[in-house]
Amino acid sequence: xxxxxxxxxxxxxxxxxxxxxxxxxxxxxxxxxxxxxxxxxxxxxxxxxxxxxxxxxxxxxxxxxxxxxxxxxxxxxxxxxxxxxxxxxxxxxxxxxxxxxxxxxxxxxxxxxxxxxxxxxxxxxxxxxxxxxxxxxxxxxxxxxxxxxxxxxxxxxxxxxxxxxxxxxxxxxxxxxxxxxxxxxxxxxxxxxxxxxxxxxxxxxxxxxxxxxxxxxxxxxxxxxxxxxxxxxxxxxxxxxxxxxxxxxxxxxxxxxxxxxxxxxxxxxxxxxxxxxxxxxxxxxxxxxxxxxxxxxxxxxxxxxxxxxxxxxxxxxxxxxxxxxxxxxxxxxxxxxx
Length: 338
Prior knowledge:
This protein is α+β, with helices and mostly antiparallel strands and 338 residues long. The chain has helices at 4-7, 12-27, 67-74, 80-93, 113-129, 191-201, 217-221, 229-237, 251-255, 277-286, 290-296, 312-318; strands at residues 34-35, 44-45, 55-63, 98-108, 133-141, 151-162, 177-182, 243-246, 264-268, 301-307, 322-330, 335-337.
């Protein structure tokens, strides 16, 4: 009998094969809070209420943007899921939250089980490293919506923080120090501009190499988004931090002000940390002025810490590779890069 749905572009068998391939990966992230198994209509998670005095749930949804285009070009799919989990973990970490569970969405025109398996392998790795459960997701086959061989990837994370550990930035004050933790590359932002510079203006192919970089331009652009959870969470539990800003879309200028109280601004001192070669190349090849570079890219700093000056030593003891990149000054939630 003719499979009319398959003729219309949706392959149910490919979906079942994908589930078969990813079951072991997903179960590998489970802990004793997970009830049920993969395939239920909803993921079941027994909240550990006895571990918290006054728990607050913190959630976030995000994607990896046009970094996917680089993955498509290289036909390398096992890193973008890892990027997605780490990005979402960092987004809730800035409020002091510990991740509990994660859900993913893969939308595609035609489902390729091996590609989906590679994506989920990255998701599972990110969840395991961050102590997070991959509790569910959706793989949607929608012919006509996506270009052949391409897909979209989105994730939702839910975490928890005890009210007494919640980080809001409300107690940030003049004279506090601003510290930066290094990024591993572009992370998951600025790829539309980066791809335009590399592949249109500079005329490079993803497999091309340039003297400034150790790997091909494609591999450099695919460098994984770094998670800061395991390094910073012990400082959160000790109440050592006043504010955290994940440097994503909007760079320094738009992300740091999100945590500043009234009357406070931040001065960032350019040159106080090593800018990665990829950013120097993008600025030069694309003729990108500093103001735009520090708004579009993270410029080598993936997470910003604000703490009291007397807590800097404790931060450095916990996170040896940290740079003093600025200070809190009088201002109205404005960042100046000097």
